Amino acid sequence: MESATVGLSHCDSWSLREETKKTTMSTFHSKDTKAYQEPSHSPMHAPLSLTSAAHGLPTSATLAMNEAVAKRRSAGRETIHLGFGEAAFPLHPRLKTAFAEAATRTGYAPVPGIPALRQAIAAYLTCKRGLTFSPDQIVVGPGSKPLLYALLQILEGDVLLPVPSWVSYAPMAKLAGRRVIEVETDPGDRHRLTPQALSQAVVQARGDGADPRILLVNTPSNPTGCMFDRADVEALALWAREAGVTLISDEIYAELAHGWREHVSPARFYPEGTVVTGGLSKAFSAGGWRLGYAAFPATTGGTRAVAALRSLASEIWSAAATPIQEAALAAFAQNASVEQYVQHSARIHGYMAGQLYETLTSLGVPCPRPAGAFYLYPDFSPWRLALVEQGIRTSLELAHYLLEEWNIATLPGSAFGEPPEVLRLRLSTSLLCQPEDATSSDEREAALWRLLDQADALPPVGEVGGPTLPLPALERAQARLTEVIHYFSKARPS
Ligand SMILES: Cc1ncc(COP(=O)(O)O)c(C=O)c1O
Questions:
Q1: Which of 62, 140, 222, 280 to mutate to test ligand 1, by most ligand atoms within 8 A of the CB atom?
Q2: What is the pTM of this model?
Q3: pLDDT tens digit string along 193-223?
Q4: What is the Cα gyration radius of the chain?
Q5: Which is nearest to 162 in space by CA: 381, 416, 395?
Q6: Does ligand 1 lie within 6 Å of residue 252's CB atom?
Q7: Which option is the CATH number for 61-84+338-491: 3.40.50.460, 3.90.1150.10, 3.40.50.2300, 3.40.50.970?
Q8: Ligand 1 pocket, 145 CB below 6 A?
Q9: What is the CA(339)–ligand 1 centre distance, in A?
Q10: CA–CA distance, 235 with 245 (Å, rounded to integer)
């Protein structure tokens, strides 16, 4: 898959090959007679050979890009990092204290999560999303990512995926042995997903011998930053009910709506057929804590799915880390200060995405207006001819070019399921608030807290005027993208 090599130089794969060669050679030339000896006869199968699903499986494009940026920076190469979506505000002090107090809890937690946390998540989903769950319907795990993969292992059927969709869904589905059925969205209308497109995809998939039974949706969306409006959510949910399709609603960014469009869960309209997932990574800036949840319908099917997921978890990860679960209680329990922290971070993320969106649209770059999370999904096709003259025909080539020639890290649309020649890129704005002059982590934290404190003074999203925040990384990204577009425009063949 082409996303495998996003942002990675040829040296990376070369050095890996060299490592492998060295290891192999030292085994062969060992003088230690106790060391393992290759059998003299030819074995039926080579040891450590891979399954076809694992063969050539690349590192997730977003993590590969983040590693590539870290390498560039440590080699002293300036990089404007729009390639990784990580919420990086300081941890709320209540979570920090709760974690410190729970540090000595070294015993395993119950497989589906500690009861108090499941209770808190159920109450949180009622309060924030208007959804009703009992603690028994909640399963906590080490991040929502493994939970999503586990869901694709236990639920029946092939998987309907809107295009574009988050990088990991399709590889997860394939690893789980499922076929991926791509569903068109409307780029001219904020990547809307319609029942018509879904029905069309299902008819075609059935004709091809697939059995589409699962639909995975993500609003606010990674990669577009768009959100479905209420009417669209209702229409999708009713379509899924009518089609007997299980909806997995990845709501990891729900708390990071920017304020001009309400987040509505499809579980409001199709509670008996929707599994909701979420976690600590985005709203609570705690991705490294690896804590997520899945919430299941209160039906016989839902109860069976919870039991299957518990069994699968018991065989694979046993339970999420106990101190992290204890600390997560402080995130999901109602608390005015934590709620304000989440609102402020949503506001600052909305500000950064909004500012870069204004820059792009003022330059004539088609880009849907972001409504949540920290992503933009611009389309560079107006400059296709100029790009072709530079030998750039695909989004992957465009992403490479921007990294190598302009020091801008992005991700290509092809990593999100788009055809290679579609010239869309995903830009992530989450790291543009990082203070550049901080000399210690304390200074960095203090600067980020000062920034969060300014959130209330910002005008509502989309309104002009009001204070602007001094964010040098954001300003640099705006200036560099302006230079790039001016350069493309000058080079545009008439
Ligand atoms: C759409 C989407 N879903 C799920 C995840 C994974 O979240 P977690 O950290 O809970 O595993 C991410 C992380 O980037 C994401 O963007």
A1: 222
A2: 0.90
A3: 999 999 999 999 999 999 999 999 999 999 9
A4: 24
A5: 416
A6: yes
A7: 3.90.1150.10
A8: yes
A9: 21
A10: 13
